[in-house]
Amino acid sequence: MAESHNEFLSSDLTQNLKIIEEKMKQTADLKRRKLTFHGEAIILLYLDTMTDKESIELHIIGPINKQESESIENTLGTKQFSIMTTYKDISSSIAEGNTILLTENCNIAYSIATLSDEKRAVNESLNEKVTMGAHDSFVESATTNISLLRKRLRTPEFKVEYQTYGTDTNVEVAICYLESKVDQTVLHSIKSRLEKIKNDDLINSRQIQEALEDYPYSPFPQSLRTERPDRAVFNLLNGNTVIFLEHEPSAVITPISFYSFLRSPEDYNSRWFVNFFYYSLRLLAFILSVTLPAFYIAVNAYHSAILPVSTFYTLKLSVMNVPFHPFVEAIMMQIVLELLKEASVRLPSAVAQTIGTVGAIVIGSAIVQTNFISNTMVVVIAVTAVSSFVIPIGEMSTSMRLMSFPLIFLAAIFGFIGIAFGLMVYTTHLVKLTSAGKAYVEAPKIFQSFLNTQPKNGKGEDTNAHE
Amino acid sequence: MLTNKNLFFLIIQAQIGIGILGLPYILYNDVQQDGWMSLLIAGVLAQGIIIILVALSRTSPKETFYELNLRLLGNFLGKIVSICYVLYFISFSMLLMILVTDVINTWILHQTPRWAIILMLLIATSYIAKEQLLTISRSFLFFSFWFIVLIFLLILVYPQDIHFGRLQPIGSKSFTEIIKASPDAFVSLIGFELILFIMPLIKNPKKSLMVLTFANLFTLMLYIFLFITCVISFSGVQFSLIQEPLLYLFRGLSFEFVESIDIIFLSFWIIPISTTLVIQLFNASLGVQTLFSIQRKKSVYLLSGLLLCLGLLPISLTVKESLSSIMIYLNIIFVFIFPALLLIIAKLKGIKG
């Protein structure tokens, strides 16, 4: 381009305007506004679609027209602004929603923050509900989210760092932590991992997670995505780091331990034995949702001998007229269940209820009456599904349900032995995983964890974690 | 770096495995109710060997056994010894695989071909063995849950039809007979030789002797408890007929929802059995790594490929019998005599740890 040797603003206003508009690719929503200030022409440039017009009117055009002061700096005194001299800065500043002020015979421009702040109100969390405790949830704005945390953590130790990633999207990423609690080596590794984000198109939390996770191909999430400020605060107090991505209504928490996925913020808000009961229940749900279908298939296909006679007859009567191998039955039923679940998520809530009815009554009872799938299998798969839905974090719940498939397969080939081998591999895999360099699974400290006392820094969940 | 806890679970998992199924049968048919004395003697022997092994690995705590014997015996002789050790671990794993497939074929999956079980076993074990030792030991901690199940089930046997009188007369056998039976018991205690290969990875080498002693004690107590439970539950005639008394013990148990605990128990007992194989694979792969400078991960895959090929060979009963009787002597040579000789050489060369 002709301007390559001339990237700084010149004193020629029309020339400047031409180059800036060229830089902005002549986009249709770039508006210009012409004013005069003490006899000099002033041009305002802004993106119509991103700026807050009321604020421009009130804080820029108004004072300029009144001509209260001699200099532009003083006139703009009430508004935050910065001075720019290159075309590149100016064009990216416009793209960020700022207003550019150019004056005649002057080779500097003023960039004034006028980004319109359209926010969704803070609503109740949809995916992580609790019966007791706070009901607010994160929204699509990182600043609002951080303010939700700040309101709970009124301490100067709470530190926020902003970074911008993605050359195409220029998304702001906020790293929040408590300076006194966070492990500096872990924090350092998190930051260096974020530096490595290569995606030009950073837009999802998943991309952040991928950069943070040590084993991105593992089926288990190694960083926790939550919608709940109270969960984020609890983790901050434990010395973990919370990462926000602008325009994502969730926080990514890392490092995290596997057991955190089984906890709901409600736990810490209830009596110790209630807390203990529900935690144990979720542990049980985890085990059930992974192993129950496999167990049923192993018993049905290989080891009916382990059942007492009466139970044996009940089971055999139920499967007698079913033409399929239990493995096929289980896979069919799992797929039907996933279909129903997926359909009800995608549909508007009024229609989703219909899906529930169709699923429960039409498919559920009809499939048994037609002898495609046995009664016991329906019960088993239903219990499995319900157990997996108990898990408070959706990401983990889905992983668990899907992890039962390989076990089903192994049980169909080797019976109990297949399950034993499968569980062996699962355990080793889980033990191998690390989250930001900290161990993902430790031996369950069930008795320590149900007490409401928060673990002290460094003595917390993962004492043995550094590998 | 391994903590004491990690080391403890590594050792007990390496020790306890398939031996537990047949141990009471073998001991009872040698020395009847005095088998527990043989066990004790074997345990004392094992303790003596542990002291030797720890002393040897302390002479240079930063080296594994393979590096140590390369340094002490020179390049040529050292390499031969290392190769012998790798071969020993391979044959140990081989025997283990044969025993496991036999038990599975007789008790649970009667029709499943041997290769399928071996393939399954090798996939699972090599998946674990290729990991770092710390990961292995931490997963072993989870697998140790089955020891609790075992002890619990053994306690459940007590309300059944048992006779403590079967333990008497104590000491009816001569002392030489009891000693003669102890090598059979000693086979089941093998596994602590692992310490030779992991000394550089231990956080607190000074405490290792104590940890090993506790691990050995745990295993020994578990075996004695098991033996006594079997003796008081079965009569002499029964004992001569049943090769896996432990499983028959559990066959007698039944609950409202579950019968034949033996099948469930054996199926999941595969996990502690596999851990023994994992340790053998680990030891062998470390040797291959040192000898041929191949990555340990790759050498685990290589070794499991080799074991799979060996497992595909048709193995007759006589081969199996002779292999297991040879193993008894090989164990003593490789776990006791070699390290003891090496310790003497190390002391003569005046190398201090």
TrEMBL record, chain A:
Keywords: Membrane, Transmembrane, Transmembrane helix. One of its GO terms (cellular component) is plasma membrane. GO terms for biological process: spore germination. It comes from the Bacteria. The chain crosses the membrane at residues 281-302, 347-367, 373-393, 405-426. PANTHER family: LEUCINE ZIPPER PROTEIN 4, SPORE GERMINATION PROTEIN. Belongs to the GerABKA family. This is Spore germination protein.
Automatic annotation (TrEMBL), chain B:
InterPro entries: Spore_GerAB (IPR004761). The keyword Oxidoreductase does not apply. One of its GO terms (cellular component) is membrane. It comes from the Bacteria. The chain crosses the membrane at residues 7-27, 39-56, 76-100, 112-128, 140-158, 185-202, 214-243, 263-288, 300-320, 326-346. GO terms for biological process: spore germination. It is a multi-pass membrane protein. Belongs to the amino acid-polyamine-organocation (APC) superfamily. Spore germination protein (SGP) (TC 2.A.3.9) family. NCBIfam families: 2A0309. This is Uncharacterized protein.
